[in-house]
Amino acid sequence: MNNFTYYNPTKIEFGKEKEKNIGEYLKQADVKKVLLVYGGGSVKKNGLYEKIIDSLNKNNIEFEELSGVVSNPLLSKINEGINLAKENKISAVLAVGGGSVVDSAKSIAVGAKYDGDVWDFFINKSQIMEALPVFTVMTLSATASEMNGNAVIMNDETKQKYSIASVLLNPVVSVINPELMATVSKEYLAYSAVDVIAHSIEVYFTAKVHPHFNSRIVESIIKTIMETTEVLLENPNDYNARAEFAWAATQGLNGLTPAGTEGGNFPNHMIEHSLSALYNVAHGAGLAVVIPAWMKWYKEQNISQFKRFAREIFNSDDENVGIEKLEQWFNKIGAPITLSDANIPKEGIGSLAENAYETSKVWGMDKIYSKEIIVEILEKA
Amino acid sequence: MNNFTYYNPTKIEFGKEKEKNIGEYLKQADVKKVLLVYGGGSVKKNGLYEKIIDSLNKNNIEFEELSGVVSNPLLSKINEGINLAKENKISAVLAVGGGSVVDSAKSIAVGAKYDGDVWDFFINKSQIMEALPVFTVMTLSATASEMNGNAVIMNDETKQKYSIASVLLNPVVSVINPELMATVSKEYLAYSAVDVIAHSIEVYFTAKVHPHFNSRIVESIIKTIMETTEVLLENPNDYNARAEFAWAATQGLNGLTPAGTEGGNFPNHMIEHSLSALYNVAHGAGLAVVIPAWMKWYKEQNISQFKRFAREIFNSDDENVGIEKLEQWFNKIGAPITLSDANIPKEGIGSLAENAYETSKVWGMDKIYSKEIIVEILEKA
To answer: What are phi and psi of A113, to 5 degrees?
Structure first.
């Protein structure tokens, strides 16, 4: 087991109606004025926006607004938010939405405390030394962005989808009310499930050292996600399934699963980001395409863990059955499993590989994932 | 799934040689003068004391010392520490040891900021509103006290073993270096294993609502503890087993396993505290005596979870086999499983039940656990 530091100071307020207390949580943290960040109009239609504003008003928290965040959130929108924050003496950023909204809020929180271009942090040109505090009210569970310090955004000029990470970006308080997630479409539920499974298996398969305890936690998350996704596709209003899904998703990328592992990385995310960037595919959909292809390409490099996966998740001794059954399960829940399922032409592979190779370099993975290797993987998809 | 708040701001510094940085961790937290709390002389014999002092000196951290903390730590010793802290303008408490030392440090941290008798907090006469920051360097893993806000101590006058809990008592930084635990006796390793299993199963069996995800995490902890204990009894120097044991133990009582459950309580701990209090039995040893007896008495009240336990841990469909095999395993690793194994005479049951019933009242469990019921359980032991 490797040395590690585990530190996750995010307070999770989990459960029914917790969003009504958001003003109190902000007040307890001495916040005077927030920038409220959200996506399309759905929070206005379903009444969540009003509840949030009510709670802010009751607690005398002033606010400005930034709406219109899209999935694969855009740097241009984030710069708009940074300007708003700087002009209005904002003291915290409140994200109301899913991972894209939270990642935008985090990026704004960093940019608001920086004189230069916020993109500097994404290309490792600058190091994060301070940020506004971030708060969240989640309407979708998948990215665990509610309990980590990561943000992934898209530079709409350069078509690069890059990330930042700092414990300064861990939300101070995150509200996870599973009821708010009941209206998510079946399609997005499936993509979310794939995303959580992706977070769980990246380090599980790629680490050189992966303690049994960590493997067990990962398997607990995957089993819970698969079980609850099937329940929710039948009955979207099953509160307990929604709640277990949400909490398992949070545990999937909050620092717990990789603690003590050695040498793990995120190749599926690396490749997928190019699918999102070039074809605007939903992140979870892109992952469902990449993962089975990557698994087929990679399995020989960690055969014992692939055998373990097959055994623990699908009760089979054959590592190929494990891959096959996961692919079938992605298909069953309605996620695309080939490039053509995701409307990506075979001719696109070259430019996808080129784009992904750029990320590979930024993430320090280019020694393993050359352009040729990425082409080889994508051809299996 | 129930509503819950999850908040655990303790930073864990895990791994080899991390104790050498303790002075830096204190300095980063702006600590000028610590009270160093430890137990018998073992930290002096094995060189740990010197490493700590070196690190404090290098970082210009002044210190006072309180040594001689015993297992089932005593209020009288804690009062000594509180006086030292008040007289010397101590700004943090540094525990170097196992659960008893950490629990003493936490109690001192509370008492140092209070004008009255620190015992007030243990009998719910006063509420914890402030405390000195606590830091730890662990030499034994079991209680998870390194990553929670709980402390259990013993009033040596009244023979009551009571507890406090507050997030203010969560250590700011805890160092867990598994190497420091390699010299623990086989006996204490066994008791530690029992203690972790106890933490894991209390809420697992007693909660009215226990989500599958939580069950899976608990089972992951139990499997890891059983597997690594067996390795360590054979080879105490197996670093990876020691590390997995330590980290699983920390997860066993840091707030993760009960999050979202409903109505769980700690009957085995409640009864065991009386064994410790009246017969000075090691906590883990007392638990090994109480748990199988309690399981036999309780199983009908949550038969499906007992069946699940038998299936997941011992691969059996019979809940009785699950209990029997756990009892056998306690016996195999060298823990006592009957009162007579622990040198407690049958005649002691009456006074044990009386003592435990007092705790039952303080913990609000007296509606279920009357004196008669406690006698009934202890007679099965």
So the answer is: -105, 20
B24 CB neighbour count, 10 Å cutoff: 15
What does the angle CA B208 – CA B214 – CA B219 come to, to the nearest 5 degrees? 110
Query: Mind giving me the DSSP string for A111-131?
Result: HTT-SS-THHHHTTSS-----
| ipTM at complex level | 0.95
Helix or strand run (H / E) with residue A138: strand A134-138
Closest approach of chain B CAs to the CA of A137, in angstroms? 14
> For residue B300, what are its two tokens?
């009908």
Fold of B184-379: Dehydroquinate synthase-like, alpha domain (1.20.1090)
Q: Which residues are bridge partners to B134 per DSSP?
A: B93
User: What is this structure's pTM?
Assistant: 0.95
Parse chain A into domains and list their residue ranges: 11-180, 185-379
Beta bridge partners of A37: A66, A95
- Phi first, then psi: give them for residue A42, nearest 5 degrees: -60, -35
A211 with B244: Cβ contact below 8 A: yes
Contact A363, A356 (CB under 8 A): no
Confidence band for B91, pLDDT divided at 50, 70 and 90: very high
Comparing CB atoms, the residue among B14, B212, B217 nearest residue A6 is B14
- Say if the Cβ atoms of B247 and A227 lie within 8 Å: no
How close B227 comes to chain A (CA, Å)? 10
pLDDT tens digits for range A140-178: 999 999 999 999 999 999 988 899 999 999 999 999 999
- Nearest C-alpha in B relative to A11: B7
> Could you tell me the maximum CA-CA distance found in chain B, to the nearest angstrom?
60
Chain B residues with CB under 8 Å of A243 CB are 1, 211, 260
State whether A211 and B240 contact (CB < 8 Å).
yes
Answer yes or no: is pLDDT of B71 > 90: no
What secondary structure does DSSP assign to B41-61, as a single string? THHHHTSHHHHHHHHHHHTT-
* Neighbouring-strand partners of residue A161: A154
The residue ranges of DSSP E strands in B100-198, in sequence order, are 134-138, 150-155, 160-165, 173-176
Question: Coil, strand, or helix at residue B295?
Answer: helix
Q: What is the DSSP letter of B123?
A: T
* Chains A & B: contacts with CB separation below 8 Å: 106
Q: Which CATH number fits domain A185-379: 3.40.47.10, 1.10.287.380, 3.40.50.300, 1.20.1090.10?
A: 1.20.1090.10
CA-CA distance, B175 to A190, in Å (whole number)?
40
Contacts for B259 with CB less than 8 Å, ≥ 6 apart: A14, A247, B4, B6, B214
A236 CB within 8 Å of a chain B CB: no
Tell me which chain B residue has its CA closest to the CA of residue A221.
B213
Top residue of B170, B213, B240, B308 to mutate, by most chain A CBs within 10 Å, is B213
Contact A15 B4 (CB under 8 A): yes
CA dist B165 to B96, B133, B192, B198, Å?
20, 14, 21, 18
Q: Please state which architecture CATH assigns to domain A11-180.
A: 3-Layer(aba) Sandwich (3.40)
Topology alike, domains A11-180 and A185-379: no
pLDDT at position B224? 98
A213–B247: do the CB atoms touch at under 8 Å?
Answer: yes
Sheet strands side by side (includes B33-38): A4-6, B11-14, B173-176, B134-138, B92-97, B33-38, B62-66
Long-range contacts of A255-258 (CB under 8 A, 24+ apart): A255/A6, A255/A7, A255/A8, A255/A148, A256/A6, A256/A217, A257/A199, A257/A200, A257/A203, A257/A204, A257/A214, A257/A217, A257/A218, A257/A221, A258/A203, A258/A207, A258/A214
Q: Residue B183: exposed, middle, or buried by beta-carbon count in 10 A (0-12, 13-18, 19+)?
A: middle
